[in-house]
Amino acid sequence: MALVAVSALALSACGGGTNSDGSVNGSGKTLNVLVNVNTLYPEQQKQWMSDMSTKFKAQTGAELKYETFTSANDELTKIQTSVVSGQGPDVYSLGTTFTPTAYATKAFVTLSADDWTKVGGKDRFNQAALGISGPDQEHQAGIPFVSRPFVLAYNKDLLKAAGFDKPADSWDGLLAQAKKLTGGGNYGMAIGYKDNFDPWKFIWAMSTQAGNPLVDGSKAKLDDAAVQKAYQTYFGWLSNDKVVDPASVGWTNSQALAAFSQGKTGFMLMTTASSIVSLDKSALAGKYAYALMPTIPPGQSSSPAGATPAASILSGDNLVVADYSQQKDLAFAYVKLVTSKEEQLNYNKIFGDLPANAEALKSLTDAKLAPITDAATKSFATPFTGAWGDIQLALTNVVVQSIPELSQAGVTDAALQQRLKEAQDKAQSSLDRAAKG
């Protein structure tokens, strides 16, 4: 229904006249931008928004207004509401995994050569970051804003005291290390089970590493044994293995990071370069390092033949411009501003996310970033299907529904199997709808 509504829209006007020097005159106009609320650095984000508004007005004469979303479900709802109504933000900053969902609506600009020129040229960007901008190189809607490959952080002192020189490369090995690190008020792992964005990424990684892609062509595979094993492993760290703080059942990722920064936890899993800003101001400053997350699936001592040793999802944020926007020239001017080398390095300094701007990325010299840039080269994209947003939410919902039991005795196999059946049905239905266009 949303696709029909969008295809009926005939809104191609561009707001803000372009001057002879290529600059955009947006006097009297307002550009609306949707971004994810930054739970790690909320005050810094407010200041950054204010600074960008000032710079944008100086460049274009236009006002810049931000609105935020707080969860993946909120993100999807914002997209769907705007698609149906044909009105809403001019620019969306979306997680890379939601770019296929946005693209499938046909409500966002598929970038022409001229559009790429308006934002500084395609060569401005790290080419790896373009891997989930569209279904192919000729049909792209997502303009890379930041890169956010996932890694683990570890407490160097705690690992050394336990006799480990580095984190294990298998999930079983990491658990064995975590068990040895747990005790005396210390825990092996910090996990945010109630996080709005990250739990499903553990399941995707472990399942992919086991040789089970969650989407195989037109078929969902959420009911595969590898998926059940992934959830059992993830839940088991809390309920069976006791290597995480019991309070983590109610933690977001930012709360897990805060706990890790106190120096009493061995590993902080599923974190990114954005954690550097917090950790360098904590008791762990100079006492932590990053490493790839395990790439060998649970129950295995080596990668299965033919499986994908994924270190991370291809992660970050893409900027997309709404096709219904009356301010397209202003929208591209905004994208050009925030993806410039100067602004990308400034964003990295404030929030830690890796630049998508190629020159800015090459100029980074912090040795701590080496494992993170390595993870970027060993990251794999989630399936480019309009159904992925629903599939991602179905995976997350399994965790959400399991939280009450995790708080008690743990999740039974029967309960998990029922939730996976429901998730499988939702995923397959969404894939079927996407196939029909």
From TrEMBL:
It comes from the Bacteria. Coiled coil: none annotated. InterPro entries: Bact_solute-bd_prot1, SBP. This is ABC transporter substrate-binding protein. It comes from Psychromicrobium lacuslunae.
